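Colleagues,

For the teaching module next term, I've prepared a clean inverse folding example: a structure given as tokens, and then the sequence designed for it. I'd like students to try predicting residues themselves before seeing the answer, so please don't circulate the second half yet.
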């Protein structure tokens, strides 16, 4: 009888150990090799090791994604921080969300014009049209703030034109329907790989230093299922490290997991080189850790959110800086997310195709 009970208990334990928890992961732009580390995590078995299965869903901007996390239709998301800060203002309904993992540690948003454009500075864009992915994109508040500091009011002195990403935005610029692009850096690099020369406009340093997208979750999920979020973050951290070690291998692994990400064409060498160029355009921002310190994947540095709030206030996008910063993020899961052997991950990366 005892033997039967022991076997039954062992069987139940094995079933539980083999069961996978599903995470719905919301993106604010289409999946590419640049934001596809979780495809690499799947390829290398990191997700399976953590007992999680990830379903990726794409939304058209942070303002569209965040309500889905509030209602718990989406487990974690990858939005800009600006909308969460705005939700903490007087008269707003505070979103019950917090950031748990700092993914892009520097600002990814740029302003680009054609190389022969007469526009030389951001101030020259007064009276012009700027292409943005969508008016719901999370960078819009900072774009408004940046121009307001220069005495330029968006909507009055210049127009933001929602063009979408990729080809529609590129065509609008080349056809002269817009004067500049305000997209993330890999979009502008992609345009260059297609043969169009562009020039980036210099942005104020305080905007360049701001962090960008991170992993956000519902406060209830953070409280009731921190191990699930830590497992997700750990798999993401390991894949990010692996991709840094072997960027061509990372691109190929992402293509293998999702063949639709591989651009069409017969020149395999150029296709790979262009894709690695896109990855390179972003990767320093994933790795912007304090010099001389071991990376603490997912951690928000002290003062990072205070700087974000101050810049938004200076630009008139929020009315007060009297915000409980601890309500915006937590570093509590960072130790668990970093609980892995970097040397083993580096060895895995070198085995990528």
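(Answer key — instructors only)
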């Amino acid at each position: 009888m005892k033997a039967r009970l022991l076997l039954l208990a062992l069987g139940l334990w094995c079933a539980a150990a083999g069961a996978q928890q599903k995470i719905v992961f919301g993106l604010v732009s289409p999946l590419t090799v640049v934001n596809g580390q979780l495809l690499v995590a799947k390829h290398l078995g990191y997700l399976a090791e953590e007992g999680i299965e990830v379903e990726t869903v794409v939304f058209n901007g942070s303002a569209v994604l965040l309500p889905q996390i509030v209602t718990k239709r989406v487990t974690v998301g990858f939005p800009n921080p600006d909308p969460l800060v705005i939700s903490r203002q007087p008269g707003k309904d505070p979103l019950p969300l917090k950031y748990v993992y700092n993914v892009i540690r520097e600002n990814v948003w740029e302003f680009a014009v054609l190389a022969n454009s007469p526009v030389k500075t951001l101030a020259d864009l007064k009276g012009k049209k700027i292409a943005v992915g969508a008016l719901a994109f999370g960078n819009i508040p900072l774009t408004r703030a940046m121009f307001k500091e220069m005495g330029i009011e968006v909507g009055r002195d210049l127009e933001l034109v929602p063009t979408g990403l990729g080809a529609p935005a590129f065509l609008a610029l080349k056809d002269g329907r817009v004067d500049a692009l305000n997209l993330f850096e890999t979009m502008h690099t992609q345009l260059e790989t297609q043969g169009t020369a562009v020039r980036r406009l210099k942005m104020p340093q305080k905007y360049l230093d701001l962090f960008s997208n991170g992993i956000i979750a519902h406060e209830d999920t953070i409280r009731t299922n921190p191990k699930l979020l830590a497992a997700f973050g750990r798999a993401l951290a390991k894949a990010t490290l692996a991709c840094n070690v072997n960027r061509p291998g990372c691109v190929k692994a992402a293509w293998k997991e999702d063949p639709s990400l591989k651009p069409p064409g017969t020149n395999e060498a150029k296709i790979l080189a262009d894709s690695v160029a896109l990855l390179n355009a972003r990767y320093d921002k994933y790795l912007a850790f304090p010099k001389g310190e071991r990376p603490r994947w997912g951690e928000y540095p002290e003062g990072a959110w205070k700087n974000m709030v101050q810049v938004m206030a200076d630009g008139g996008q929020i009315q007060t800086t009297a915000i409980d910063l601890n309500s915006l993020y937590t570093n509590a899961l960072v130790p668990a997310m970093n609980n892995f052997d970097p040397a083993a991950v580096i060895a895995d990366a070198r085995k990528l195709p």
